[in-house]
Amino acid sequence: MERFVNFTGKCVAIYRANIDTDQIIPKQFLKSTERSGFGRYLFYDWRYNADGSPNSEFILNRPNYSDSTILLTGTNFGCGSSREHAPWSILDYGFRVIIAPGFADIFYNNCLKIGLLPIVLPENTVAGLAKKASSSDGLFLSVDLASQIITGQNFLEHFEIDPFRKDCLLKGLDEIGLTLEKEADIQRFEAARTSRFPFLNYPLA
């Protein structure tokens, strides 16, 4: 996965509590196990009208927010079913950071596995950022993962993250990458196993 070290982006606020994974990406779009291509379906029922035309009232369809890369949202974001497609669609759309007062546990962990950074901040802090993001001037924030600090216009806030997850993000290591770091040890084990138990390598017939 792509490393996450420092990131600066434009914020967009979809500040609602309890946005579930079916609202993030409806079930009819879960037909592929590839991680790419799901951004077009993000918030589909909100972004599009029944006839498939863009809903001009939805914030991501407004020109000044279409290129946003930091999502500000309400508490318990990502609740509902544990579909991995939800964080896939958010990342594929172009977001790298989600800031909320709280996340559903499975969704939170699924984000970290693909290089999407979920940040928990106090509710009044996120509400204040959402208000700034909705102003005519907009809001840009910078995230320094190594220092665990968010900065912006007259804003500085520290955030918490599990040290192991932080290290994985900084190095760009997903679960496969973590396994491959032990490739030499795995090969030594396999060689020793073959030598000690050669009968285990006989083909089944």
CATH class wording: Alpha Beta
Order of helices and strands: EHHEHEHEHEEEHHH
Residues in helices, as a percent range: 25-40%
Largest sheet: 7 strands, mixed
Strand content is: 15-25%
If helices are DSSP runs of H or I spanning 4 or more residues, what is the number of helices?
Answer: 8
Computed Rg: 20 Å
Q: Specify the CATH homologous superfamily.
A: Aconitase, domain 4
Distance linking N and C termini: 40 Å
Mean pLDDT: 90
Low-confidence stretches: none
Count of distinct structural domains: 1
Strand order of the largest sheet: 4-3-2-1-5-6-7
CATH architectural label: Alpha-Beta Barrel
Shape: globular
Supply the helix-strand structural class.
Answer: alpha/beta
The total beta strand count reads: 7
CATH topology: Aconitase, domain 4
Describe the 3D structure.
The protein has a single domain (6-173), classed as Alpha-Beta Barrel (Aconitase, domain 4). The protein has helices at residues 21-24, 44-47, 85-93, 105-112, 123-133, 163-171, 175-180, 183-196; strands at 6-14, 70-73, 97-100, 117-120, 140-144, 149-152, 155-158. A seven-stranded mixed beta sheet has the order 4-3-2-1-5-6-7. The chain is of the alpha/beta class and 205 residues long. The mean pLDDT is 90. The protein is globular and about 70 Å long. The chain is built from eight helices and seven strands, in the order βααβαβαβαβββααα. 28% of the residues are buried.
